[in-house]
Specification:
It is found in: Cell envelope. With 347 residues, the protein is an alpha/beta fold. It is 39% helix and 18% strand. 50% of the residues are buried.
Amino acid sequence: MKRRIAAVGTALALGCGSAVTACGGGTSSTTDTASGKVGVVLPLLTSPFWESYESYVPKQAADQDVRLLQTVNSDSDPSKQITDIQNLLAQNVKGLVVSPLDSAAIVAGLNAAQRKDVPVVAVDVAPDKGKVAMVVRADNRAYGEKACRQVGDAVRTGKVVQIQGDLASVNGRDRSEAFSSCVEKNYPGIKVLDIPAAWKAERAAAGLEALYTANPDIKGIYMQAGGVYLAPTLSTLRRHNALVAAGDPRHVVIVSNDGIPQELDAIREGLIDATVSQPADQYAKYGIYYIKRAMEGQTFRPGPTDHDSTIVRLPSGILEDQLPAPLVTKANVDDASLWGNQIRKTS
């Protein structure tokens, strides 16, 4: 299912003359790199997306000859995440792959790692500041923009709900700001009703219940995390006899983010209209890829990669490899290359 990463010096050029570069420290042997273990910190495991990511991590580590400690789950608690990082540093890990819960709070953990000269790769969420070798992420503003276009073109006028992520996370901020600004600019007839759900299913359920009760004429919903929000959203609509398939004039247009198998099934059934497939498999693959090379002393620079992405420099100065995140609709939901279809076959 997965291709082995290209070696140093091949397509993801690791020479100082290329656009995407690992400059600085010399390369260590695979044996030297493997002698130091890597700690992987997960933000939560109450979402099928993060369960899938966790399942990919050990496979990618094995493929790339990287030794891992057991993954750590921070249980949606930014304070616990800092403690988790400190505990891993106390175990003398030589590298960390961390998925931050709070873009500001994570800086304390990054600083602790820097004091011990332990490189960090951030996956899925960029920190506001601090030292990381690379952020492995997709363009989250594009998520909001794609959702806006899908919902806006279908609804045109009326009320639309945005179930937001945690606004302490750059992901929640990027998706929310992009969606809202796109709607305001392109669909003046749409009114956006926000639910600040903080990646928590119970908040999404309570917020949608209240909004739908007060606004039974809701025409669309944008869920910023299908792995957390899909089940409560469908349950709430079903309870109000409003869960009808696309094609029915009473259908509520729903666009999501994640690309989990459950979302793909819901698209097939016509219950939701689209999702942006967040690449859980590629997050694991390139999280391991970059931490291995950072442990070897390599550094990177902006430019195109060999895996259909571009490394950009964020306003904070941090580098981010923006991986592709395709929009999935009824037209391409059965595409075998989607990780949500692949993981079903291997699970």
